Amino acid sequence: MSFGYTCDQVIIELMKLMNSNESSNKKMSKELFSPPLCRLVVYPPPPAKGGITITEEDLSCLEEGEFLNDVIIDFYLRYLVCEELEKEHASKYHVFSSFFFKCLTQKDHSRLPGTTRLSIQEHRHSRVKTWTRMINLFDKDFIFVPMNQI
């Protein structure tokens, strides 16, 4: 997961919640808590920031007849920029995660209090403005926004 939690941490937190409420334990299926996914590789490797973790489940989407998932798309785009371009050319590119477009275009079923005066453009910008706080997009020659939709 790319929002500050690993799959293992999410499972641990869910199990804590289940243990704190015995009545809900009986209602929840044990299938929700399958063993943690096996991490195969993190790219780029530490100490680089923003590493993408690839699991066995992600790798299975590369089989014939399967759809590519967001993690594989993000990994390959990052790999192309980091490994296939020379350093001076790589700095001219910015590749967003495929989750950027999903976050930008998600439907708002309920607006937060105080945001009703914002235009749709301002509201969408407020959802993704932190994605570029450390980078100046105007310094880039190419900006890629991958879209992974069915």
Automatic annotation (TrEMBL):
One of its GO terms (molecular function) is SUMO-specific endopeptidase activity. It comes from the Eukaryota. Keywords: Hydrolase, Phosphoprotein, Protease, Ubl conjugation pathway. Pfam families: Peptidase_C48. GO terms for cellular component: cytoplasm; nucleus. GO terms for biological process: protein desumoylation; proteolysis. Residues 52-150 form the Ubiquitin-like protease family profile domain. This is Sentrin-specific protease 6-like. It comes from Cyprinus carpio. The lineage of its organism: Eukaryota, Metazoa, Chordata, Craniata, Vertebrata.
